[in-house]
């Protein structure tokens, strides 16, 4: 009986398959996972993935009541189109699978915006309106893909498979990196495979893999060769009854590689080849001459070749061509695949291609290039393939022209990653092609500048700097291009080393000063804004003013918007006058700008409104522009900072539900390292909302991200110091004393008196320090008082600064035992004055609690009771339940709660606990320990301990016994008579 061509059942791989299934189960639960499967060629990566897909798509028991319960599987095969490849080549195949699975309407709905649909239509024909209502410009293509997968995976479990990443184009690799690191809370499982023996230290996939290794949501699966026993099991499936000594020899010769086992078994009684290459070519060698020639022609076209293309480039007539293909399919050298054919294994294609004679290789690649240029050159895949075929045909001018055409398409439609690679390819060919500048439509330095800008757009400062430096080496004469390269070198050096080369900007200014060209005026404006950002005082003001004037003179709204934004930052920072900084931003946002530039200005305006305490206006402006960003299809690229600013504005305005939505959105849009700022914002919110255990869980879960962020961005330390300080606040100052308090205070004052952060951040830090240390009945350190007084007297005379100064003066009055009437007047005037609306909701509610304290000390119990009742009622809805608890505790201690009995008072205090805390308190009353509570509630003992500590602090119990007694009193007082 002849041997089977492949094993009917996968051998081994139980651990690897379990890892894939576990990642899939995480996706079912809303936790996205990316699985990277690595192994050498022929080891069985594809078979493993096929078995996994068969298991997750099967429904043998009919448990899926509707088709929508089944996962949507989309498959993308990376193709070896040379070192550049077509942008998003395998992703295009993924999108077409998704389109076939869910239909046009669902795909359009998931795209989310007309701009995204316009982008995706280039790769998924049929999803765009045939008669669009307007000329909606396409958005960013990478972002459109990300948004599509994110939104589609909200409705269905999406499984994306990307095979052979070693051949992936730069755009696909960048997209995979982004998806693996930023998508959260979606039913998405990505499986990517690559050949580990192809990845040397210079391979472009290597840095991508290194970054994926640092991403916690990525699972790594290593597919290793089979053991001798597993080889024996595979052989038994392929050909039963073989002599054990033959099987042992097969295991040794194959090295445990399943593909080679199959090829060795297929040889039957024929002699074993001397080399691995001869073994891989064994099936090919048994073909007739026509079939071998067809296979060589096909190998030059890649793993998969469409039938119409292969028919056009082959040298055989149609009848002989069909006969040759039939023979190759019957011999299992190639397989029918959609509209064409594919090699059964990449090793076979590589070996067959190696059989081509040099002259044959040139001739076949030329035919491919000519046919694709004439018939299919508009396709992005084919545009890149044409360039590669001309290179292989050794026709460098034609390869150069094809690469220029591909570069133009990448600029208008696809990816900066592909643009950068194509530009670099042209620089390599430049000196080998006659009239290169005429062919390219640009000079060599301009090409280097294009590459530098593309790498900058990708966030790769190192490569951008290299391209800019190489451009400067070949740009002695063109002042505008040289100035642009100098500016690019300054920007990338600053991004890499946090210091700029001032001499680069000075040389750029000198080059541009006397050039009578609008391009030079615009570029000079941009250079002057860079200089202004790096300066202070009169020099910065002069450079910013001239940058504005040059942009106005050139009539360039984008340059003017940048210059006005820099002027606003200068006014806010150098002159400490955020209110006046609003004017240039309001002017900038009214200009005619493209969506990314409008997003840049809108983010600056929203942030400035936040700084001056105009939180409701910040919400209105930010929301409007966030909707514009979403419609333009650039949410991921331009929306993260605005989403963060909106979350902060909404929290400060007392609208926590909306704030949390934007915070989580920003968290998904940002990579984990930059997302640490969102973690800090959420931790601060959880503190003020009296959810200490959740805060602790969040900080523990994100500890690695937080520590990495603080190492890389030490200037961001300030907000973390403030967040820690707020966590130990009570109505009467810090809950901690001694060295712990001194350490927290030192960190906060470092921010208050430092030169990092905005003036608004420094003022907020001073307010936090005052809240930690100033309270009625708490002695005031004279040095601290002098420090606080001197600080607020140095603040500028504008409303936001005056509001914070009045807040601190009222705190000082509390701490200095001023008369109750004086204290009440100080707090009342702050709360009722317009400046009081410039405070965050938590500071306003703290001010109201302090007013209630003063009213109680002055004997105004009814007024205090009404105020405290209002705080208890409103604070939780505003996201500051902690202050509501303080108010309830103050009312209980003052016997303002209804009824005089201790039971009623204890019931009022217990009522301030969250539902989870009430569960924990009930178990404390039962006498359970922390581990027992954790076991009962399915939480860790550490989390149970955090809950217990929070409960004791909230209800004023000294120990667990007192807490149990208060719970018992509360339960009896609320029981029916």
Give the termini separation: 89 Å
Strands across the major sheet, in which order? 2-3-4-1-5
Name the overall outline. Answer: globular
β-strand amount: under 5%
In this structure, how is the largest beta sheet organized?
5 strands, parallel
Number of DSSP helices? 52
Number of strands: 10
Mean pLDDT: 84
Radius of gyration: 34 Å
Structural class: mainly alpha
Helix content: 55-70%
Catalogue the unreliable spans: 131-139, 898-906
Commentary on this structure:
The chain contains 52 helices and ten strands. It is mainly alpha-helical and 977 residues long. The strands form three sheets. Strands 2-3-4-1-5 form a five-stranded parallel β-sheet, sandwiched between helices. The protein has a three-stranded antiparallel β-sheet with strand order 6-8-7. The longest helix has 19 residues.
Question: How would you summarize this macromolecular structure in one to three sentences?
Answer:
This protein is mostly helical. The strands form three sheets. Strands 2-3-4-1-5 form a five-stranded parallel β-sheet, with helices on both faces. The protein has a three-stranded antiparallel β-sheet with strand order 6-8-7. Helix 34 (640-652) runs antiparallel to helix 35.
Compile the SSE list and pairings:
Elements: H1 14-28, E1 33-39, H2 45-57, E2 72-77, H3 89-102, H4 104-111, H5 114-120, H6 141-155, E3 158-163, H7 170-182, E4 188-195, H8 205-213, E5 218-222, H9 228-238, H10 244-254, H11 258-266, H12 276-280, H13 282-285, H14 289-301, E6 304-306, H15 307-313, H16 318-330, E7 334-337, E8 340-343, H17 346-353, H18 358-375, H19 380-392, H20 396-412, H21 416-429, H22 436-440, H23 444-457, H24 461-473, H25 479-497, H26 502-512, H27 518-533, H28 537-554, H29 557-574, H30 578-589, H31 595-611, H32 615-632, H33 635-638, H34 640-652, H35 656-669, H36 676-688, H37 692-701, H38 703-712, H39 717-727, E9 729-730, E10 733-734, H40 738-753, H41 759-773, H42 782-793, H43 799-815, H44 820-832, H45 841-857, H46 861-874, H47 881-893, H48 902-910, H49 915-925, H50 930-937, H51 941-955, H52 960-974
Parallel strand pairs: 1-4, 1-5, 2-3, 3-4
Antiparallel strand pairs: 6-8, 7-8, 9-10
Helix pairs in contact: 1-2, 3-4, 4-6, 5-6, 7-8, 9-10, 9-11, 10-11, 14-16, 14-17, 18-19, 19-20, 20-21, 21-23, 23-24, 23-25, 24-25, 25-26, 25-27, 26-27, 27-28, 27-29, 28-29, 29-30, 29-31, 30-31, 31-32, 31-34, 32-34, 34-35, 35-36, 36-37, 36-39, 37-51, 39-40, 39-41, 40-41, 41-43, 42-43, 43-44, ...
């Amino acid at each position: 009986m002849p041997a089977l061509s492949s094993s009917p059942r996968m051998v081994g791989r139980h651990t690897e398959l379990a890892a894939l299934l576990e990642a899939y189960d995480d996706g079912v639960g809303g936790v996205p996972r990316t699985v990277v499967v690595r192994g050498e060629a022929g080891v069985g990566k594809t078979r493993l993935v096929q078995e996994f897909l068969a298991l997750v798509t099967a429904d043998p028991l009919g448990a899926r009541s509707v088709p929508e319960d089944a996962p949507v599987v989309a498959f993308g095969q990376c193709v070896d189109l040379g070192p550049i490849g077509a942008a998003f080549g395998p992703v295009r195949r993924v999108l077409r699978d998704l389109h076939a699975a869910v239909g046009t309407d669902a795909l359009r709905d998931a795209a989310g915006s007309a701009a995204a649909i316009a982008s995706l239509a280039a790769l998924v024909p049929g999803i765009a309106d045939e008669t669009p209502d307007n000329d909606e410009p396409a958005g960013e293509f990478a972002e459109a893909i990300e948004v599509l997968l994110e939104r589609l995976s909200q409705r269905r479990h999406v499984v994306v498979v990307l095979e052979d990443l070693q051949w992936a184009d730069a755009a696909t690799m960048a997209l995979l990196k982004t998806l693996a690191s930023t998508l959260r809370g979606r039913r998405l499982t990505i499986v990517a495979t690559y050949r580990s023996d192809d990845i040397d230290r210079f391979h472009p996939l290597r840095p991508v893999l290194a970054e994926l290794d640092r991403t916690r949501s990525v699972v790594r699966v290593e597919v290793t060769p089979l053991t001798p026993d597993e080889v024996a099991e595979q052989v038994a499936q392929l050909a039963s009854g073989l002599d054990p000594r033959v099987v042992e020899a097969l295991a040794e010769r194959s090295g445990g590689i399943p593909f080679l086992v199959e090829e060795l078994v297929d040889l039957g009684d024929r002699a074993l080849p001397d080399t691995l290459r001869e073994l891989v070519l064994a099936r090919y060698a048994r073909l007739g001459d026509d079939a071998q020639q067809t296979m060589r022609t096909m190998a030059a076209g890649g793993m998969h070749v469409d039938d119409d293309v292969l028919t056009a480039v082959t040298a055989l007539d149609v009848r002989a061509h069909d006969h040759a293909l039939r023979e190759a399919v019957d011999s299992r050298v190639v397989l029918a695949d959609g509209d064409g054919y594919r090699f059964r294994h990449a090793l076979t294609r590589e070996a067959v291609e190696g059989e081509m004679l040099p002259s044959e290789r040139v001739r076949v690649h030329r035919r491919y290039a000519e046919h694709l240029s004439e018939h299919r050159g508009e396709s992005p895949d084919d545009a890149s393939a044409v360039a590669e075929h001309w290179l292989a045909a050794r026709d460098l001018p034609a390869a150069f022209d094809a690469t220029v055409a591909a570069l133009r398409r990448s600029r208008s439609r696809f990816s900066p990653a592909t643009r950068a690679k194509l530009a670099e390819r042209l620089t390599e060919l430049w000196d080998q092609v006659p009239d290169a500048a005429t062919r390219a439509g640009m000079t060599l330095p301009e090409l280097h500048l294009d590459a530098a800008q593309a790498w900058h757009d990708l966030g790769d400062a190192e490569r951008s700097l290299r391209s800019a430096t190489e451009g400067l080496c070949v740009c002695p004469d063109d002042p505008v291009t040289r100035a642009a390269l100098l500016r690019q070198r300054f920007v990338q050096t600053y991004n890499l080393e946090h210091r700029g080369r001032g001499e680069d900007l000075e040389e750029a200014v000198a080059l541009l000063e006397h050039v009578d060209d609008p391009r030079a005026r615009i570029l000079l404006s941009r250079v002057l804004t860079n200089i202004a950002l790096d300066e202070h005082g009169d020099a910065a003001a002069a450079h910013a003013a001239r940058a504005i004037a040059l942009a106005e003179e050139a009539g360039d709204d984008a340059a003017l918007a940048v210059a006005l934004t820099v002027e606003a930052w200068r006014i806010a920072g150098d002159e400490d006058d955020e209110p006046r900084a609003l004017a240039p931003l309001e002017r900038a946002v009214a200009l005619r700008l493209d969506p990314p530039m409008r997003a840049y200005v809108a983010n600056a305006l929203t942030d400035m409104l936040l700084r001056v305490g105009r939180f409701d206006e910040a919400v209105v402006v930010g929301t409007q522009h966030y909707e514009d960003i979403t419609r333009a299809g650039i949410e991921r690229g331009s929306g993260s900072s605005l989403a963060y600013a909106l979350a902060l504005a909404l929290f400060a305005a007392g609208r926590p539900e909306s704030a949390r939505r934007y915070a989580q959105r920003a968290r998904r849009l940002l990579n984990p390292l930059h997302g640490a700022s969102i973690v800090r914002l959420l931790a601060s919110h959880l503190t003020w909302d009296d959810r200490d255990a959740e805060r602790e869980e969040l900080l523990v879960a994100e500890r690695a991200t937080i520590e990495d962020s603080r190492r890389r961005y030490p200037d961001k330390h300030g907000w973390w110091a403030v967040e820690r300080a707020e966590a130990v606040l009570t109505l009467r100052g810090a809950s901690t004393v001694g060295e712990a308090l001194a350490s927290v205070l030192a960190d906060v004052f470092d921010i208050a008196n430092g030169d990092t952060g905005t003036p608004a951040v420094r003022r907020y830090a001073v307010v936090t320090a005052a809240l930690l240390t100033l309270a009625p009945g708490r002695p005031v350190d004279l040095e601290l008082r002098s420090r606080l007084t001197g600080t607020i007297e140095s603040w500028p005379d504008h409303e936001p600064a005056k509001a914070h100064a009045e807040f601190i003066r009222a705190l000082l009055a509390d701490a200095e035992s001023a008369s109750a009437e004086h204290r009440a007047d100080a707090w009342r005037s702050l709360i009722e004055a317009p400046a009081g609306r410039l405070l965050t909701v938590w500071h306003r509610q703290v001010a109201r609690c302090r007013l209630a304290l003063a009213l109680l000390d002055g004997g105004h119990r009814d007024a205090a009771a009404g105020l405290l009742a209002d705080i208890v009622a409103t604070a939780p809805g505003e996201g500051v339940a902690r202050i509501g608890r303080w108010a309830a505790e103050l009312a209980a201690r003052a016997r303002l709660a209804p009824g005089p009995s201790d039971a009623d008072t204890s019931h009022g205090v217990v009522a301030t606990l969250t539902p989870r805390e009430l569960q924990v308190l009930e178990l404390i009353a039962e006498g359970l320990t922390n581990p027992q509570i954790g076991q009962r509630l399915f939480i860790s003992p550490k989390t149970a301990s955090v809950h217990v500590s929070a409960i004791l602090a909230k209800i004023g119990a000294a120990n667990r016994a007192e807490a149990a007694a208060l719970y018992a009193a509360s339960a009896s007082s609320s029981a029916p008579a």
